[in-house]
Every structure is written in C-alpha cells, then in structure tokens.
Design brief:
The complex is a heterodimer of chains A (about 600) and B (about 400). With about 600 residues, chain A is α+β, with helices and mostly antiparallel strands. Chain A has five domains: about 1-180, Rossmann fold; about 195-275, Beta Barrel (Elongation Factor Tu (Ef-tu), domain 3); about 295-365, Alpha-Beta Plaits (2-Layer Sandwich); about 375-480, 2-Layer Sandwich (Alpha-Beta Plaits), CATH 3.30.70.240; about 485-595, Alpha-Beta Plaits, CATH 3.30.70. Chain A is built from 14 helices and 33 strands. In chain A, the strands form seven sheets. In chain A, strands 11-10-16-7-8-15-12-13 form an eight-stranded antiparallel β-sheet. In chain A, strand 21 and strand 22 form a beta hairpin. Chain B has a nine-stranded mixed β-sheet, with helices on both faces. Helices cover about 40% and strands about 20% of the residues of chain B. Chain B has 15 helices and 16 strands. Chain B has about 400 residues and is of the alpha/beta class. The longest helix of chain B is centred in the first third of the chain and has 17 residues, at about 50-65. The two termini of chain B are about 45 Å apart. Classes of the chains: A alpha+beta (about 600), B alpha/beta (about 400). The complex binds guanosine-5'-diphosphate (GDP) and iron/sulfur cluster. Guanosine-5'-diphosphate binds next to helix 1 of chain A.
Chain lengths: ~600, ~400
C-alpha cells in the first residue's frame, strides 16, 4: 500500500506558477473536472487571492494511474510562500518525501526559492527541479536550468521543463514524481505517530488538523492525545482531502489527511505537534516541534474607545483560526485600552489588521511595530520587552540585545551597489557574494530584524528596479546600542508614539518624525510643540502654528440650521481624533512613524 | 384668503394670537448676471415682465401672512439678488403691505451697477432709510476678477448720489482676499472706505462656496486661493484701519459707527423672530425655522396654490435650539446675552455648558460674566473651533 504513496510539496517563488501547476495536476489526475476548474484552486481565501500568496497551507490527494499501469496516490502538500511563515513551511516539508522546485524560465531563481529549498534539503527531501513557463517568449529554459543544476548538483536529465499554462511537460513531471520520490517509510505496527503540519478553523466543525501518519494508524472513535497537550480527545472524524473532505474510517502509515476532534480551541492543536493514541502511546514525539514565537509586536487600539469589547471579541475569533496570533491587554495614556498584539512578521501583521477591518468591521489604530528586545540589567537579570514604553532608560542597563537575521538577497549584478548601500543604511553586515550566473548574485547579509520588518522589502524592490528578492531566517540575539525615543506634544510624552531605535539613527529619525508629524497634525487653537527626546534630552523639535482662520464669514437670517450642521460635522471630525492633553492627534499620526522614509 | 383649508386657518389663528413679527426680510432673486463667487439663490437674464410677475406673487404671499405681521414693523430688509433692480413703484407697493414703527430701519441692497440717481432718490421718498452698497473693492482690477458689473468710479458716483438723496445710514460691503490682492490693496480699500465715511462696513473674506464657478476654478487650478494665514492678516489689517477710523467691530464681519449697527441683522444674531418672503427666504419663530422653496418656479406655484409653509417643530429639540442661540450670539463681539438665554430657555447657560465654558476661559479663548459670554476679540477668527468645543 504505502509503496504506492508519494507525498510531495511544491517550492516556488511567488508567481513562478505553483498554483497553476497544481491546477494542471488536479486536472490531469481527474481530481477536479474541467467544469469545476477554478483558477488557482488551492488558494481559497479572499485575502490570499488578492495578494497572490498562499497564506495557509492545504493538502490534496490525487489518484494517478502511471505509465507502469499501477495506481498511485499523490499527496500534494501546499506550503505558505512567505518568510513570516517559515516554521509552517518547515512542518509541511517535514510531511513530505519529495519537493518539486518550480522556477520561472523567464525569471530564474529567487531568494524565496532558495530558503525554502534549503529547508527541503535539510529534511533530505528528493528535489525535482522544474523549469516552468517555457511557453513564454522571454523564457530562457537552458540558462535557468543551468542555474538550477549548479545549485542542486543534479543531472541534466533530472530537470523537467513545463508549461503549467499549456500543460506541456506536466505528465512527465507526474511520472518523475513517481519514479524519483521515495515512498513513505514508517512502520504500521508501531504506535501511532502523526505529524500535524497545518490546521484551520471551521466554524461548524471546530479545529481541523492536517496530518501525515508517520507510524501506525488512526481510526475513527480512537482516543488520542497530542504530545504537547495533556487532554485526551476523541477522533470525531478522519479522512482524506480531495477538493472536499472525504470521510474515511482509518488512515494508515504514510497517508495524508485531516482529523477533527471537535475542539474549538486552536491552541489544542498546534502545528508541529505529534498525534498519538491515548492508550498505546508512542514513546516520543516526532522531532521538530516548536512553540512559534511572535517576532513583531504592535499596539492595536479601537478608534472609538467604546469599541474595546468588540475588538477583544474580534481578536478572540481571529485567534480561533490563527494560533500564531498572540495578544495581551495594553493601556496607553494616549489611546486608552487596547492590546499588544504579536505577529509572525509584518505580512502577518497586515493580514491581521485587514481581517479586523474587513471581516470584523473594526476601525483600529496601530502603533509603530517593534521586535522583542532583551534587556540585561546590571544585577544580571534579563527582561524581555516588546513595547517601547517598557524600556526605562533610567535604570542600570548593562546591555540591550535585539534579534538578528541571516538574509539572502538575490539581485542583478548591476544593482549590487545600490543594494549594498541600502543594506548599510539598515545596519546590515556583509557576509558573502555567490554568483548564480553572469548576471545574478546571491548576497548574504546579517541584519537586525527591526531594520527589515518595516519597509525594507519595498525599498529593496525600488533600488533594484523590482528585480531583487529577499529572504531570511532568524539567527539569534546580539547586543546593540538601542535607545528609547520619545515624542512629546506640548511637553507631554505620547506613550503610543515612543520607539526603540539605534543610537546612531536616533537624531535623523527624530528630525524626520517631527517633520512628518508637523505635516499630519492639523493646526489647532494653540501652537503645538513637537519634540523628539531621548530621556530628558530633546534632540529634535518643530511647531505646528496655531490655527488662524476658522470662522464662517457670513451668517445671516439664511441657513442657520445648515451652518450648525457644518459645525457639528467639524466637531465630529474632531471626535475622530485622539485628544492628547490639549492636542488633537489624527489617527494617521500613529502610522506616520512607519513612513518616515517617504 | 378664502381658498385656504380650514385646518390651516385654525393654525394661523393660534399663531396670530401668540405673537407678531416685527422683522421682515424680502428676497429679490434677480441679478444682472451671476457673479462667479456667489452662492445666493438668484436668477439672471430675466426681463421686466418677470419682475412684475414676481412682485405680484410676492405681494400675495405677504398678504397670506398679513395677520402675523406687527403693525409696528421695526426692520424691513430688501436683499437679493439685486433688489435695486426694482422700481420705486414696486418698492412702494411692497412697503404698503406693512405698517412701520417710526424708527423702523428699512434697507435695500444696492448694486452700484444698477444705481441711477432718480431711482435712488425715489427709493428714499418711499421711506427706504438705509442702503447696503455692494462695493467689494475700490480697485477696478479686483472688480474685474470678481466679475462685478460696476467700476470703482460707479461706486464713488453712487455714494455721492446716495448722500445727496438724503441717506444717512449707508453700509458698504467689502471683499478681501480677492485673487491678486496685496496688503497694499487692503490698505487702499480701507482708506477709500474711510474717506467715503459710511456708517457701516461689512468685510468678507472671499469664500469659495461649492457649486460656484470660483470653486470649480479653484479645483481645476485656474485660480489660486489666498493662504488662510494671509487672509487673516488681511482681515486684521482691514479691521485695524477701520477701528482707527472710528468703526467698531460688533460682529465677525461687521463694523459700524457708534449706534449704527444693523438692527435687522442684530435681531437674527439675538435669536429674534423674523419673517421672510420670496424664494429661499427663511423665517424664524422661537428658534423654529421654516424656509420657502429655493426655486422660483416652485415658489410661484406654491403661492398660486395658496400654500404657505407653517412653523412646524421640525424635530429640532431644545438642545439644538440652544446651540443655535450660542452659535449666533457668539458671533457678536459683545457675546451671548446670558440673561436672554435664561429668559428664552429657563435654564442658565452656565448650568448647561459650565464645564466647557470653564475650560475655554482657562485656555484664554473666551470671557464670561453674569451679563455676557464672549469670544476674546483676538480669537474671533477661530470662532468655529471655539464653538465646536462648546456645543
Ligand atoms: N505563460 C505562462 N504563464 C504561467 C505559467 N504558469 C503560471 N503562469 C502564470 O503566472 C502567473 C502566476 O502563476 P501562479 O500559479 O499564480 O503562481 P504562484 O504564485 O507561484 O502560485 C499567473 O498569471 C499564471 O497564469 C506558464 O507555464 N506559462
Ligand atoms: S449681484 Fe450679488 S446676489 Fe447677484 S450674483 Fe452677484 S453677488 Fe450674487
């Protein structure tokens, strides 16, 4: 049985054709009919389609009769395509024996491809290189094939050329998958060990886990437990994933499917955890489980303070199908009650905010995101902070550490100078250069995470005319010279505008932020002094001059009601602003910090 | 009056018994041509026949309300539009519909482009005793920019005629921040005004009202609006010169020689009652307003059908009425009359808005005593912001 199973994933840079290729496979294997064919069948979340990024991975089982006349089960496990979700990618990869590496014949290898490829290689997956989009006039299949061969050290004959668009080469690819990717190993006599490689939340069924049976088998009605969880669950339903869920009585070693226990709590079912039986328990979990830690934090406050409760509800609901989301209550003198929310990365942050707005109709104010810092006090103890206002510069701080990343940037050789300049601005430390071919290089750097989470990618795209790609992994904490920068309005500190920033950048940043705020803060009845300060030392200042003219020239027997309505409208506009001392601060002010470089 | 339903009639009777109007506004919705900055309801390019047609309806409208007007009308105001297009006979006919208090203030807005000597003299004879002259500027370039149909020379001539006709209460309208104006333009206009020595001056900063040609031109970048700060400087400059020349600023945009405030407009700012005739005219009774149809055609039809709009409580509650009282009162430099407020609403303004008032006093924006609550003179330019804090 298991000798006819092939578990694989597709690794590709965004837009290189992963979804299209998956669609073709679904069609060729008859998993999906022409008529039901919806483009990009694997992406079914609205947000994902707009972004063209597969945010949450899914899996699909295909039946395929190969040239050798035998029937095979192909399990395609989708992987999220963004660096914020590296851990989830690694779990999906861990559920496979092989990976199809898709490279666009007109683009070549990108950084994203590299980092996922490294993940797959670490897990000893069999890699099948595919050069896609060979139908494009601009395609350079030979050239790109060489890059790939160099990289993988594989044979010419291993490379498959496809056009996911026309379907050319896709059959050949399916045959290669069967002949090259090993069937699952595992021991069906051993106690159950199943890897949870993904999960989703269904409002009717609760949490649905996607699992790969590594050893043993799972049956409906089994009593199971998760290794990282004490409670015992009943198996309510198991099955495999076609275009819909298909119920099964049991799942065997090597198979991929879903598991429903009826739990409504996403934190019961954690990606990377191991499922085993509650009686015949496996001795140890599968390797590689990690509690995912948020990398980026920001304050999220309701625009209208009355909406605190509904914000809380919304976050709770979001958390139900996104276990990587964390939040704790936070209060700010400027913004009232809200939450400190932790995200996997900046994209994750944007997604959360968009979902809050779109799905839950919340209007929220977001504060400047920051990473988690380690503060070492002279007494020796270490504190973790993820909110600038918790950094008390007055204490005896031995050192402050911030997270660093190892990054690879792939760019055209002609843009190396510009990319290096940008990297330097972002406190990047150069590591190495590797040529992919005559025109493209991989630059390796280390960066403080805080320098890349905001707008680094956009800047990189613009200095490289859109060609450069970028990927990273967290490498650890290192000590740097960080300071807390406060913003004061008429002498009053605005906690929600504080930032932690490198000492050498503080002046420049302080000046910019003051200027930016000056543009954003509307003129009011009094002068408003904007200051940036480190501790008690003011490093930059500007003033928003008092409003001089705000009066209706004429008001006679005519339209008095209309005039009053005008006033009421004006008043409403003011209400939307946050009152800080005597100053009214528009919501954009809190986002302004994100855009100081513009 | 027979053609009205009984229902309506009964209402009128209740109404009549309660009070009578002694301040009257009459709208004349015709102009020589439409000025590109003006958002008043007015029609241009109509002929004399249309005027007399209009007058006859206007007279029937006044007739409908005959029982409601006081027999000692204190102010009558012919506004527009361009009421100086009317003949003295027409003015007379309208005035005959009312009986006046002996000190009544009877004003006509006069456009210098329409002023002929005989007419202005005849107006005076009918009892018109106050003129509001639409000067705007003494600089021909400004007048051209504003699309006015008169020149600076017309202004001097008209003013001379008015004085020789016997008018001793003349108001001049000035426009500042006309595109192209400089501080010198402001000083020149202020000095020329002072030389003519009118009893009253209204100074308006050019406003770009939506739906005017100027607004569109501004949107499309064909004219440049004067910067807000500069507008204020111009206004302050104008105000300073006028004050030095013996005028007193008694309202946001109005200056007068001692004792020469506009009685008609003061009544509005004092939250008084008034009755308006003509299309788009407003009336106000105890804070409840009603408005005639904007469109001339609809207005005329209403009159023909004998339909009048009554003062129905329009869902406005007393909180809103209080806001209006404050919004209007604060426009005056003397401020809101605290005792009048109490008399009108039965509650003290300090009980209703005490907290906000205190804050604003502490911020140095307003002053208050048991007589008046007022905006500090140097803060009048941000009246709206202040009002937003209170109401
Ligand atoms: N011409 C051509 N276009 C392709 C091919 N494969 C994918 N595309 C197009 O490339 C774009 C990105 O493909 P998609 O499958 O969404 O990429 P993904 O982001 O990797 O999932 C889409 O517009 C596809 O229609 C191909 O083989 N040839
Ligand atoms: S003359 Fe007066 S009312 Fe008529 S359009 Fe010009 S500004 Fe408006």
């Amino acid at each position: 049985m298991k000798k006819n199973i092939r578990n694989f994933c597709i690794i590709a840079h965004i837009d290189h054709g992963k979804s299209t290729l998956a669609d073709r496979m679904l069609q060729l294997t008859g998993t999906i009919s022409e008529r039901d064919m919806r483009n990009q069948a694997l992406d079914n979340m609205e947000l994902e389609q707009e972004r063209g990024i597969t945010i949450k991975s899914h899996a699909v089982t295909m039946n395929y009769t190969a040239a050798d006349g035998e029937e095979y089960i192909l399990n395609l496990i989708d992987t999220p395509g963004h660096v914020d979700f590296t851990y989830e990618v690694s779990r999906s990869i861990a559920a496979c024996e092989g990976a199809v590496l898709v490279v666009d014949a007109s683009q070549g290898i990108e950084a994203q491809t590299l980092s996922n490829l490294y993940l797959a290689m670490e897990q000893d997956l069999e890699i099948i290189p595919v050069i896609n989009k060979i139908d494009l006039p601009a395609a350079q299949p030979e050239n790109v094939a060489h890059q790939v061969i160099d990289l993988l050290g594989c044979d010419d004959s291993d490379v498959v050329f496809t056009s996911a668009k026309t379907g050319e080469g896709v059959n050949e690819l399916l045959e290669k998958i069967i002949s090259l990717i090993p069937h699952p190993k595992g021991d069906s006599d051993k106690p159950l060990q199943a890897l949870i490689f993904d999960s989703m939340y269904d409002q009717f069924r609760g949490v649905i886990a996607y699992i790969r049976i590594v050893n043993g088998a799972i049956n409906t009605k089994d009593k199971i437990k998760m290794f990282n969880q004490d409670s015992v669950f009943d198996v309510e339903e198991i099955g495999i994933l076609k275009m819909e869920r298909v119920k099964k009585e049991r799942l065997l070693t090597g198979e991929v499917g879903y598991l429903i226990t009826g739990t409504k709590n996403v934190s019961d079912i954690k990606v990377g955890d191991t499922v085993t039986l509650s009686k015949d328990t496996a001795v140890k979990p599968l390797p590689g489980y990690q509690d995912i830690k948020p990398m980026v934090y920001s304050g999220v406050f309701p625009v209208d303070t009355e909406d605190y409760d509904s914000l809380k509800d919304s976050l709770e609901k979001l958390k139900l199908n996104d276990s990587s989301l964390t939040y704790t209550p936070e209060s700010s003198t400027a913004l009232g009650f809200g939450f400190r929310v932790g995200y996997l990365g900046l994209l994750h942050m944007e997604i959360i905010h968009e979902r809050l707005e779109r799905e839950y109709n919340m209007s929220v104010i977001n504060t400047f995101p920051n990473v988690t810092y380690h503060i070492y006090l002279s007494g020796g103890e270490m504190e973790t902070i993820n909110n600038p206002k918790e950094l008390d510069m007055g204490r005896n701080i031995e050192k402050i550490e911030e997270p660093f990343i190892k990054a690879q940037i792939i760019t055209l050789t002609e843009h190396i100078g510009a990319v290096m300049k940008l990297s330097l601005e972002r406190r990047g430390v150069y590591v190495s250069t590797d040529y992919l071919d005559e025109t493209r290089v991989v630059l390796k750097y280390t960066f403080p995470l805080s320098e890349v989470i905001f707008d680094f990618f956009d800047r990189l795209k613009s200095v490289s005319r859109g060609y450069a790609s970028f990927d990273y992994e967290i490498s650890g904490y290192e000590a740097t010279q960080m300071v807390r920068l406060d913003i004061l309005l008429n002498g009053e500190k605005v906690d929600a505008l504080a930032a932690i920033i490198h000492k050498d950048k503080a002046y420049h940043y302080g000046e910019k932020i003051c200027k930016k705020l000056k543009d954003i803060i509307p003129r009011q009845m009094f002068d408003c002094a904007i200051q940036a300060a480190i501790g008690s030392r003011v490093i930059a200042r500007t003033t928003v001059k008092a409003l001089r003219k705000d009066v209706l020239a004429k008001c006679y027997g005519g339209d008095i009601s209309r005039k009053r309505k005008l006033l009421e409208k004006q008043k409403k506009g003011k209400k939307k602003m946050k009152q800080i001392g005597s100053i009214e601060l528009p919501q954009e002010a809190f986002l302004a910090l994100l855009k100081v470089d513009e | 009056m027979q053609n009205f339903g009984c229902l309506f009639f009964s209402k009128v009777i209740i109404f009549v018994s309660s009070m009578k109007f002694s301040h009257i506004y009459i709208h004349f919705p015709f102009c020589l041509s439409k000025c590109p900055y003006c958002d008043f309801y007015s029609v241009s390019g109509l002929n004399k026949d249309a005027f007399s047609d209009y007058i006859s309806r206007l007279i029937s409208e006044i007739g409908l309300y005959r029982g409601m007007t006081s027999n000692k009308v204190k102010s009558l105001y012919f506004g527009g539009g361009t009421p100086s297009l009317l003949t003295s006979e027409e003015i007379e006919k309208i005035m005959q519909m009312f009986s006046f208090d002996e000190d009544a203030e009877i004003t006509v807005e006069v456009n210098p482009a329409t002023a002929d000597e005989d007419k202005l003299k005849a107006f005076f004879k009918t009892g018109i005793n106050r003129i509001s002259l639409g000067v705007q500027s003494f600089i021909n370039r400004d007048l051209r920019v504003l699309g006015r149909k008169h020149s600076a020379e017309d202004v001097y001539r008209t003013f001379r005629i008015l004085r020789s006709a016997g008018y001793d209460n003349i108001s001049i309208d000035l426009m500042i921040a006309v595109p192209g104006q400089t501080p010198a333009s402001i000083i020149y206009n202020a000095m020329e005004t002072a030389l003519l020595d009118p009893e009253h001056v209204s100074v308006y900063i050019l406003t770009y009202y939506e739906e005017t040609l100027f607004y569109k031109m501004l949107e499309s970048g064909r004219i440049a609006k004067t910067d807000d700060d500069v507008e204020c400087e111009y206004f302050d400059l104008m105000s300073e010169i006028l004050c030095r020349k013996g005028y007193h600023r008694y309202e946001v945009s109005n200056f007068s020689k001692s004792g020469m405030n506009s009685q008609h407009n003061l009544n509005v700012w004092n939250f008084g009652n008034y009755l308006g005739f003509g299309p788009s005219a407003y009336s106000c009774k105890s804070g409840i307003r009603k408005k005639n149809p904007d469109e001339l055609v609809e207005y005329l039809r209403n009159i023909d059908e004998g339909r009048i709009h009554n003062f129905r409580p329009s869902g406005e509650n007393s909180a809103e009425t209080k806001k209006d009282f404050i919004m209007l009162g604060m426009r005056k430099t003397e401020g809101v009359d605290v005792r009048e407020y109490k008399k009108t609403f039965g509650t003290s303004i300090y009980d209703d808005y005490g907290g906000k008032i205190k804050e604003l006093i502490l911020k140095g924006l307003i002053t208050a005593d048991d007589r008046f609550l007022k905006v500090r003179e140097n803060r009048m330019n941000i009246l709206n912001s202040i009002l937003c804090e209170i109401i």
